[in-house]
Design brief:
Mean pLDDT: 72
Structural class: alpha+beta
Shape: rod-shaped
CATH topology of one domain: Immunoglobulin-like
Helix content: 25-40%
Strand content: 15-25%
CATH class of one domain: Mainly Beta
Order of helices and strands: HEEEEEEEEHH
Oligomer: single chain
Distance between the termini: 207 Å
CATH architecture of one domain: Sandwich
């Protein structure tokens, strides 16, 4: 009878301890959430990269420093069969992980480098989520889209604007023509012969007058 009494007391003690443990676990989760404030994560709108380039995606979060973020990138297609949104067409995503760090302002941020050489030109869906809460009750996730542009087609208009004109352009303006002025001989002065004739006449008159004397 004594053994039955001891066994009953042990069972009652165990039943009393179980609710206490659950209460402590819930209290820890609430405290970690920061006064019931839910955790969030966001992705900055990414720029459209050119195929073959490295580019960085980044975002902000209020998750604890050092937590791990899962990044998954899917090729997507918008189809009439799925009017509600993008349809995943690749079962194996491009994926990786990164950790939460602080920036210069002390905010919690994350970033991840993507090597697009493993991707083909297409539209892609980025999905990031917390490994700790991503698939649980406190789901912490975000998505964004970007287009992977084929190489050599980024901003063709700006490339034309930046082109420098060739230095070998031939000037179509004809060279100036040198005009040589025409030379005309100066007209002979008729005053000299007249004077000479007059002098000869005077000399002849003077000579005759002298002879007559």
């Amino acid at each position: 009878m004594r053994y039955y009494s001891i066994l009953t007391m042990l069972l009652l003690s165990g039943l009393l301890l179980v609710p206490t443990c659950h209460a402590n676990g819930n209290q820890d989760a609430i405290s970690e959430m920061g006064n019931n404030t839910p955790f969030t994560i966001s992705i900055e709108p990414p720029q459209d990269p050119v195929a073959g380039e490295f580019f960085t995606i980044r975002g902000a979060t209020n998750l604890p420093l050092g937590d791990t973020i899962q990044i998954e990138i899917y090729s997507i297609a918008f189809r009439h069969a799925n009017p509600g949104g993008p349809e995943l067409i690749e079962s194996t995503p491009y994926e990786g992980r990164t950790r939460i760090i602080t920036d210069a302002n002390g905010d919690h941020v994350w970033s991840f480098d993507i090597n697009t050489t493993a991707l083909k030109p297409d539209e892609y869906l980025i999905r990031v989520y917390s490994l700790r809460y991503g698939d649980g009750i406190h789901s912490v996730t975000d998505t964004a889209l970007f287009n992977l542009i084929p190489g050599g087609v980024r901003n063709p208009s700006s490339e034309r604007e930046n082109e420098t004109p060739s230095q070998d352009v031939t000037d179509s303006t004809p060279p100036p023509v040198k005009t040589i002025p025409e030379t005309h001989p100066a007209p002979l002065t008729i005053g000299i012969p007249i004077t000479a004739v007059a002098m000869m006449i005077l000399i002849e008159i003077y000579r005759r007058s002298t002879v007559n004397l």
